[in-house]
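Researcher: Next sequence.
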Amino acid sequence: MTRSEVMKIYYYEGLIERLQETINELEARRAQLEDSMLRSPKLDGMPRATQGKSDPTANAAAAAAEIKTMIDDQMHLVMKYKTKIERKRMEILGYITTLDDPQLVEIIMLKCLRLYTWEQVAAHIGGNNTAGSVRGRFDRHFNRKM
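Model: Next structure:
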């Protein structure tokens, strides 16, 4: 297993986070459109020409439906990446069972499965380890395998 393979969960999690932000923005926009459809038109007693003008409520409904489709597409991608993460977790767990060094196993688990920062990994490992030292150990292991 390579360094890039064990780090994929980290990158998939980042993608999911960005997709979720997009979904939240789309849902907010959709809510605004739906609110605008519920408002009554301003009536001031003056006649209005309808030639060439579209129905704003229909336009808002169409836009809201389009946004709903976009949200569904984004949610599908989120589910796809979550499935990939679970597969990758199983691969990593299988890989680390082949390692003889328990500290290296812990470093890989903390960084790649729990998604700790290097500082958090070093703090968890203890023993005067720094973020740079645990990262170096991680990198040396995967560089040696190449």
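Model: The chain has two domains: 1-40+57-87, 99-146. Residues 1-40+57-87 form one domain.
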